[in-house]
Amino acid sequence: MEVRRTVLVALDVDSDDVALLEDTVDTFLWSAQYVVDHAFKGEYITTSKTTLDDETSDDVREKTDDFNGGV
Questions:
Q1: How far apart are CA 71 and CA 58, in angstroms?
Q2: Count of domains in the chain?
Q3: What is the value of pTM for the model shown?
Q4: 8-state DSSP, 42
Q5: How many C-beta neighbours within 10 Å does residue 4 have?
Q6: 6 lies in a domain?
Q7: Per residue of the chain (71 residues), what is the pLDDT tens digit?
Q8: Which structural domain range is residue 31 located in?
């Protein structure tokens, strides 16, 4: 038996807002990948959320026009 841990949620988005939602998702995914790449840079893997936030939040906001996705 397969257990699904992800809940699929159907969003009712106006056609005018579809592009905005897609841009937001793309920006969030880019930001998350940026933080992961930073965590694995070098010989030591950073696992502290606080450290990663301190080291990457300014860069992410600068590169994404102040996006704050809670990454």
A1: 12
A2: 1
A3: 0.77
A4: S
A5: 6
A6: no
A7: 788 789 889 999 998 899 999 999 999 999 999 999 999 998 999 999 999 999 999 999 999 988 876 65
A8: 18-63
